[in-house]
Amino acid sequence: MTEFLQKNELDDDELYLSPQIDQLGVLSSTRDVVERGEYVWINAERVESLAREWLDKEQQITPTWYDRYHFFDGTQRTVNWILSLDAMNFCFWAEKDQPRWCIDYQGERLNGYMAEAAALKRAVEEDIPLWDATYLSNISEKDLTYIFRGEHTIPLFEQRLHNLREAGHVLLEKYDGQFIHAIEQADSNAVELTLLLARDFSSFNDVVLYRNRLVRFYKRAQICVADLYGAFGGKSWGAFTDMDQLTIFADYKLPQVLRHYGVLEYHPSLAQRIDAQELLEAGSEEEVELRAATVWACELLRQELARHDHPMTPTEIDMRLWLLGQSAIGMRPYHRTRTMFY
User: For 147-182, what is each residue's pLDDT tens digit?
Assistant: First the structure.
């Protein structure tokens, strides 16, 4: 890894792995993985190239909140609904050569995350109280099966059921049934709410050991905060401070896009496994290195854009890369790990 970085060192020595203030501990803990990793590397020259491409071809960032697929009524019901959404926001891909779970909603065939959001919005439209903590804490397998009805079965169904019940139980035990009280306890601070989610809701505690050192990702905790911010337009229950302190949301689509642009490079053995669509074990060195390198590749991209007076938040960078990955035309496969964390 060290030789590779020396070979591709940027002109500004301070750019490489020089983090912003790291209140979450994500950048500092993943930095150690990137520096010691043996399977995934960041090509700093390609970071510069991608930044230049974005600078030369300005694109409007698509909002993260789509009224067509997301429930929103501007009240605390929306806040609880978003917690339900992100308690189950993970792992939508199908096994190799198998069809994906999908639903029909308002005349449109949807799969992946948008299908999940639309299924939960459809449930609210059918008077299923996904904002009610008591209902969530006792939701039946039959009810959740009905909510996710469509073609085929959503992956990790039992884990989603567990997470939804946990969300309800924690809301009742700690927050009088309303997630707005968690926002108030965090003083509407994005970092504090992320840490609160990871502390109080085990399904959001996205951490792993890498060579006996704790690595933090907090993917779904951060995206829950970002969803609240996007839904409320940065006002009311989405009026968070320190949004710029979040990192990108390390999943399986962003590494695919970064590899396509040459920003991430893989050891041949790992590349072969990913291209063959073999499963990578959650918490394995290969999988942790993929996610850590993704976090830092995007942090380097953020720094490079800022150097050219084009500031973007990690959330904005994440969204642009995620949207690029939705077509995936000409891209090699994404890595496959069965996990509730992304």
Answer: 999 999 999 999 999 999 999 999 999 999 999 999
Evaluate whether residue 341 is within a structural domain: no
* 8 Å CB contact between 20 and 56: no
Catalytic residue among 86, 206, 227, 251: 251
pLDDT, tens only, 19-60: 457 999 999 999 999 999 999 999 999 999 999 999 988 666
Angstrom distance (rounded) from CA 170 to CA 87: 12
The answer to whether 251 is a known catalytic residue is yes
The two three-digit tokens of residue 102, written as one number: 């999908």
- Helix or strand or coil: residue 279? strand
Structural domain contains residue 334: no
pLDDT in tens, 201-229: 999 999 999 999 999 999 999 999 999 99
| HEC per residue, 76-102 | HHHHHHHHHHHHCCCCCCCCCCCCCCE
- Assigned domain for 292 exists: yes
The answer to whether position 332 is within a domain reads: no
Q: Which domain holds residue 43?
A: 2-327
